[in-house]
């Protein structure tokens, strides 16, 4: 950046402005919004913005300013003085200004604000004369020195505080308000001495020196280490630069006809269309926040509701209240959303200092968005775009009653949302037993493993002391919609003694605890809950979302219960039904183990014959819940050793049950041991070496489909999914068997069942060779969990050791198991899509990894052209909304 | 295939032929070669070939023959009779023929040969009359019935044998030669009865029925299950088809002026340019092979050398010997290679029945190729193409003396070539101790782990009872060039008793055993060895290879010893120096463990300070060996838990040495435990979380380089390699530190060291984002081991459970850890190459996975445009040759 710049300074105020909201890149967010309000004719204290291009120029040209800037600033400042009725540096009628930074996005490390700039030993007397308030004038002056000394001259803040404290101690007073104008004069002298001794220079009396010092400090702060780090981490280009806003001061503390306040144009907690805010008479903005005085309500209605004795603005300044309401309506009509506004009343005149879109709860967001549609202010599509999908989570789970007392004994990770209370139990078998007897239990484990599935199913909530957001417990719990707190490292579990200890609290099995899966808090006792209420607005917005989305949303569900939940939440089918969980149930695990321990195919087939009717029953129950919708069933995926016990006692017990020697069981366990089970003998590899397992599962699936078709006339659309495929040949070998079994079952029953055989794309090689695989596969489901593990070479179970540091150091923007790594894994997904479609036009493409419920990932999947996403039942509404937003975004693009 | 075919039958014989060697696709290998020899004017019994197109027609048209075939065959057969002097089916002067299949490549499951076709009860009399040898005639007839009955009529071979055996028992004779013409007549009767009872039809008397039965049998055998399976596994298209060769019979057993023999035109064991072969007077081809009579030498010189009393062909038939030598010269001049020839002399006339390129030992291959260049027959490039690179392995290792007695007690996998003998030792510490005392030891373990490295280094050879070709023991042993037999499952190791048992043999620690790493045999005792001799031909050929290759060849070497071996074998630098092995040495492991157990960075740095001088010494020693050549040093790669002990006793011992509690050590071991270490906290991830380790290693590297430069004036070209990178950002973080350390060291020393910082491309994401990574990386080394593991999702350590079945079922052509998976992993390599070069022109690209020493993979790497391959020292010559062949192939293409 060099050479002549077009326009260096943009003015605003007095109902006009050189800039506007659309010029954020040039004026920064704050400057653009001040200009916009000014253009709208709203009362904004006049001022001007020095552009971000000046910042770039400054950095690129050895910290010099472009030609003409000085003149432009002087001219602009003169104009500000004319509008505000004052002259910068004038001893009789001085103009005071604030100087603020303002980049496109707010950024930590940047200089914030210098107020009251333009005060010196002469101009302060002008303020005294014009306000007849000596104390106010000198207080303002010392505040200026303090702020300027700190942020512009780099003197540590606490040195000023020390002087003030010493002085108050010396005088024996406690509050600033106890100090007089004379006290402030004395303190100002000491402040100036401090500045001289710290910097070797006197505090600048020249107001122009003050101004340029502040402007330069803003530009310099762009290169503060913290700002640079932040930009690096957030991919913010160096050349965006910051703007500088210079604005005339207004004061809410100039007497009883002055006031200051903050307001939301609607209620940010409930969304109700009622103004919501606070103000203080004769006060400055910081006093409202400081909480020294109790703020007053704006409207009478709000005052009544809150039961406050203090009068409302509506009562004390009815005209100004009316003006403010008028402003609010203008702002909402203009910005088309609820606004968060700062205002000041100076001697009976209303000034607006800031407006921005107001933050709100999920509930309020829904209400405001649907109301704005009804009011004709925004369209349905805009309403859909207004809701943060992840925020819906708050609405879908029970939560801890906000009024309840919280006895937090430890904190872990908020691994699966919702709150749950139950009796502590340390063992999965015990959890299942107690649950069957009607107890509500919380399963507490150091870590969970696939052997705990039945206990996790039986529990209201799960607490682990080890493992991260993507640990086994966390992933499975989210899948089940069960609240979970993971990795609560401060808790010590003693399995033997059946106790848990957190600090000095020890709880034993049977004691009640409560988990808050949204915050990660572990609470002692049974804390009351609030049940989720899916209000009318929720249903309305979901309807609009469904109308807007292109992708279908399915659920990952392994049980009829999950399938029902999913359908209730609007899932249009099952995208992933894992069959291994069925194998872990107490009634089946014996037959599964018998199969694994069998020495030959005949032995395995005998054990599989026992499993067949149970599997058929599982599938039939799920098909009933999903009648008429597609159900994708994945063949057995985990390595067989996951089904065998590992410790001596359990092995001995199993051996006895099976009537074999413990050595034989131990030998098989050792044989099956794997160094890297994730990359081991699992998925389609099991089907290749033990085709009889796949055959049994296929038979169970088709027999169940026939059964449900006969019962209800509504057969499911069966999709048999082969996992972990890396070549067409593998799929050919297994698909052939599935088609054979399907043919046999249908012929015997005399019924036709619509079905497809497809595969997961969850290995890089499968994505690379999708063109070949699609010759056989009738659908693809991207398994982005495993695809992430393999493409990145990161084991999800082990990643917690370094993933935090990887995010902190900017290697990953977010945990790649939470939001898909678009640059890497995303390339493989796109390849899979393109190559799959090239080989088989119209091939059905979906995703069933955890990413299927993550809004950022859903956006990517929509762009990549997938047909559907599948996620855990409780995330279905989130996915529906995210899919709608993605479709709308990509329609625009 | 349908419609009119151009020409169905190709004739040969009598110095002319319709076809030639270039028509293999149409005539099959055998037919094309017979035509070629005939064209050359060599005496080939006349015959004709029915084309492969007829086979296709037959299969595509409901097993019918194309129009005109019958007439063409009849005409051809007439012509054959005219040339051979006989008439097919004529009772007085019958023409007998052989019928053979002949596809483009030889294929198991295909019909082989029917001899003597054309014999029946009438024509056999003609043979009797013309040969005056009744016994010969009826013996020929019964042989024909037996062969035809078996291969054409499908009667099980043993049924004929049973009849013959019964007959001999009945007569009380043992040998076929004891049977008379009458005996054969009787047996013929019984054979015919067998045919009638087995097939319900009489044996065909009609010679044309015989002929068409045999032709059809050949075409049918194309669709035999075994042939189909073989084609599938070897990607041979169905429509290649087979040809049928019909050729007039010649007999070497028609008296003392007849003979039969086989010969190599040069010595296939040594390569000497001397005819090498055997013959028998008055005998048939099968008699030479059967070993009933002792064959005779062809030349007098050979007879003298063998010390045989039996006269040579040169003596008994000097004219024919001279004719044969003349034929051999013609064949060599024409085919430009040593030939393997079958010939028959019938009544003083020489006939050639087959010629093909002769198989030979590696030593002979070298000698023949270099001789042929010297003789002006082939070019240097052709000589280079003639040697099978893998065969060189035979020449590079000691081998078991072929004359020695072999007491094989068990067999395992030939995991690392070469033979070794030593005392049995079951423990790595013990192996090291004994080795230091001058004992030669063989390390015997159930499996090896990284903790055994010192023992493996100390051992002459390694034997494991578990694990495959890619187990830890196998991979490390190959890297070291140490002979290894892995997975010898029949051996039972008892660590406590210090014994190994194989069947009924029990050996104890200290007993001698010998391993043959080339065959996988385990032999009791100390068996004598033959040391490799790298003859002049070897050096000559390597020189030609080096002139022809485009890629450089480096070695993977972790020690000065390996580096020296590599350089001796012609390595042009080190492509992978793993630093972790250095950490395992007894003198360092304590400091390594201290570092791992340290609770903070200061503690780690203190331990690293101890390691620094040792690492510097390691690197300096390697740099000395590689003075002036590039040395790629990989920063620490394995997860830290690999350096800690895992069993209670070792943990307690370590705790005591470190002065901490066993619980503390146990806790750290547990903390570091990983479910999938392959995908765990390793590689650059260690450097990100513990940058002090990378810094220490960088310091050691650059200080060592300075040291060697000062000593010798020849600094190495240092390449610091960061492993397991998946993003530019990771590399930025670490490369920055390395550059900083390099700068410090060089500044302090006042010396400049040429160096680069680069990365391994061993994760799919790294290949996909190679364009970004290359902005920082100055070189790439493809780590195709890990790239294969991640792209395919297969753990090398666990793959043995299913990989065999995957190869057998045709999912993989070969083990993808042996030869690179071109379709999948190869795509990633190509991407890495293209994208890397796009971002950094001229970026240095190499490969350092096990594939770097595999000829098929080297061919791919040349095609993909890599700059070098790196492999274990003992494979360097193989890689040089393979690289040369790849370059020549791709130059042609």
**Parts with pLDDT < 50 across at least 5 consecutive residues of chain A:** none
Strand count, sense and barrel status of the largest sheet of chain A are: 8 strands, mixed
Structural class of chain A: alpha/beta
pLDDT averaged residue by residue of chain A = 91
Query: Whole-Å distance between the termini of chain A?
Result: 30 Å
Estimated radius of gyration of chain A: 34 Å
Spatially, the strands of the biggest sheet of chain A line up as 15-25-24-17-18-19-20-16
The pair of chains with the biggest contact is: A-B, 47 and 47 residues
In helices, the fraction of residues of chain A equals 40-55%
Oligomer: homodimer
**Number of DSSP-assigned strands of chain A:** 34
Question: Could you please describe the fold and organization of this structure?
Answer:
The structure is a homodimer of 893-residue chains. Chain A has 893 residues and is α/β, with parallel strands linked by helices. In chain A, the strands form 7 sheets. An 8-stranded mixed sheet of chain A has the order 15-25-24-17-18-19-20-16. An 8-stranded parallel beta barrel of chain A has the order 27-28-29-30-31-32-33-34, surrounded by 6 helices. In chain A, strands 2-1-3-8-6-7 form a 6-stranded antiparallel sheet, with helices on both faces. In chain A, strand 24 (512-516) and strand 25 (521-524) form a beta hairpin. In chain A, helix 20 (536-548) packs across helix 36 and helix 25 packs across helix 26 (662-672). The longest helix of chain A has 25 residues, at 601-625. Chain A is elongated and about 105 Å long. Chain A starts with 8 loop residues before the first strand and ends with a helix. Chains A and B meet through helix 27, helix 29, helix 30, helix 32 and helix 34 of A and helix 27, helix 29, helix 30, helix 32 and helix 33 of B.
């Amino acid at each position: 950046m060099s050479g002549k710049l077009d326009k260096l300074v943009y003015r605003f105020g007095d109902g006009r402005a050189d800039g506007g909201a659309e010029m954020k890149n040039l004026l920064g967010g704050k400057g653009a919004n001040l200009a916009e309000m000014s253009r709208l004719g709203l009362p904004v204290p006049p001022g001007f913005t020095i552009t971000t291009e000046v910042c770039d120029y400054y950095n690129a040209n050895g910290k010099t300013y472009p030609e003409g800037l000085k003149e432009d600033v002087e001219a602009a400042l003169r104009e500000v003085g004319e509008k505000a009725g004052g002259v910068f540096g004038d001893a009789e009628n001085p103009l005071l200004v604030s100087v603020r930074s303002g980049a496109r996005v707010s950024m930590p490390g940047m200089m914030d604000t210098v107020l009251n700039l333009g005060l010196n030993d002469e101009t302060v007397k002008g303020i005294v004369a014009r306000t007849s308030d000596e104390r106010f004038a000198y207080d303002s002056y010392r505040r200026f020195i303090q702020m300027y000394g700190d942020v512009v001259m780099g003197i540590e803040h606490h040195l000023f505080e020390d002087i003030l404290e010493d002085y108050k101690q010396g005088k024996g007073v406690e509050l600033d308000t106890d100090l007089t104008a004379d006290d402030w004069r004395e303190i100002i002298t000491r402040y100036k001495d401090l500045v001289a001794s710290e910097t070797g220079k006197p505090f600048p009396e020249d107001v122009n020196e003050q101004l340029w010092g502040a402007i330069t400090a803003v530009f310099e702060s762009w290169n503060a280490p913290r700002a640079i780090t932040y930009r690096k981490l957030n991919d913010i280009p160096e050349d965006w630069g910051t703007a500088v806003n210079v604005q005339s001061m207004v004061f809410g503390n100039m007497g009883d006809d002055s006031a200051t306040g903050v307001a939301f144009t609607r209620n940010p907690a409930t969304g109700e269309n009622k103004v919501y805010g606070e103000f203080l008479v004769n006060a400055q903005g910081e006093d409202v926040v400081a909480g020294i005085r109790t703020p007053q309500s704006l409207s009478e209605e709000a005052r009544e509701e809150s039961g406050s004795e203090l009068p409302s603005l509506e009562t004390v300044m009815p005209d100004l209240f009316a003006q403010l309401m008028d402003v609010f309506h203008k702002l909402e009509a203009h910005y088309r959303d609820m606004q968060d506004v700062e205002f000041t009343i100076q001697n009976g005149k209303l000034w607006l200092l800031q407006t921005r879109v107001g933050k709100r709860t999920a509930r309020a967001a829904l209400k405001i968005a649907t109301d704005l549609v009804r009011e004709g202010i925004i369209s349905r599509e805009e309403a859909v775009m207004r809701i943060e999908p992840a925020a819906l989570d708050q609405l879908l789970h029970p939560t801890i009653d906000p009024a309840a007392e919280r006895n937090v004994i430890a904190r872990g990770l908020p691994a699966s949302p919702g709150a749950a209370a139950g009796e502590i139990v340390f063992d999965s078998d015990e959890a299942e037993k107690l649950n069957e007897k009607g107890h509500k239990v919380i399963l507490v484990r150091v870590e969970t493993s696939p052997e705990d599935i039945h206990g996790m199913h039986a529990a209201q909530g799960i607490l682990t002391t080890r493992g991260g957001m993507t640990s086994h417990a966390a992933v499975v719990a989210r899948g089940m919609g069960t609240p979970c707190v993971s990795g609560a490292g401060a808790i010590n579990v003693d399995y033997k003694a059946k106790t848990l200890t957190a600090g000095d609290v020890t709880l034993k099995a049977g004691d009640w605890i409560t988990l808050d899966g949204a915050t990660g808090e572990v609470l002692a006792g049974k804390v009351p809950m609030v049940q989720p209420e899916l209000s009318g607005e929720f249903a309305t917005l979901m309807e609009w979302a469904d109308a807007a989305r292109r992708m279908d949303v399915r659920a990952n569900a392994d049980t009829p219960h999950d399938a029902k939940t999913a359908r209730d939440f609007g899932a249009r089918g099952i995208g992933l039904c894992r069959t291994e969980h069925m194998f872990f149930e107490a009634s089946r695990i014996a037959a599964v183990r018998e199969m694994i321990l069998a020495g030959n195919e005949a032995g395995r087939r005998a054990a599989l014959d026992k499993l067949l009717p149970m599997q058929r029953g599982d599938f039939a129950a799920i098909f009933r819940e999903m009648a008429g919708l597609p159900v994708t069933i994945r063949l057995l995926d985990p390595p067989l050793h996951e089904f065998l016990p590992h410790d001596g006692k359990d092995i001995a017990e199993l051996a006895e049950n099976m009537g074999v020697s413990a050595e034989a069981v131990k030998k098989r366990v050792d044989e099956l041991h794997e160094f890297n089970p994730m990359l081991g003998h699992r998925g389609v590899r099991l089907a290749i070496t033990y085709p009889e397992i796949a055959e049994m599962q296929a038979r169970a699936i088709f027999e169940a489909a026939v059964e449900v078709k006969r019962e209800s006339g509504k057969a499911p659309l069966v999709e048999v999914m082969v996992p972990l495929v890396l070549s067409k040949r593998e799929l050919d070998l297994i698909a052939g068997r599935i088609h054979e079994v399907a043919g046999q079952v249908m012929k015997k029953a005399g019924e036709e069942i619509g079905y497809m055989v497809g595969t997961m794309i969850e290995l890089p090689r499968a994505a690379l060779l999708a063109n070949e695989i699609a010759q056989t596969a009738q659908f693809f489901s991207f398994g982005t969990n495993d695809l992430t593990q393999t493409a990145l070479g990161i084991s999800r179970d082990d990643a917690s050791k370094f993933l935090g540091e990887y995010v902190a150091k900017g290697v990953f923007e977010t945990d790649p198991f939470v939001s898909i790594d678009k640059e890497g894994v995303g390339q493989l997904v796109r390849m899979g899509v393109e190559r799959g479609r090239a080989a088989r036009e119209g091939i059905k493409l979906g995703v069933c990894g955890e990413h299927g419920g993550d809004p950022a990932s859903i956006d990517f999947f929509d762009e990549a052209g997938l047909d559907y996403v599948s996620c855990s039942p409780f995330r279905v509404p989130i996915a529906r909304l995210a899919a709608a937003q993605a479709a709308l975004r990509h329609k625009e693009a």
